């Protein structure tokens, strides 16, 4: 019973670690997609 609980805890902790890494990647993607103007004003167009 105790071993089974420990295995389940380890599994959940591993899943949490994976989700935390996914969160970091997602936040990085969001931060890189923000468009910031070099000066105060409005972005008229974006050249790709």
UniProtKB/TrEMBL annotation:
Protein name (Swiss-Prot/TrEMBL): Uncharacterized protein
Natural source organism: marine metagenome
């Amino acid at each position: 019973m105790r071993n089974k609980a420990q295995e389940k805890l380890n599994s959940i902790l591993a899943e949490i670690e994976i989700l935390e890494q996914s969160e970091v990647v997602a936040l990085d993607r969001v931060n890189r997609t923000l468009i910031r103007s070099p000066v105060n004003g409005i972005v008229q167009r974006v050249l790709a």
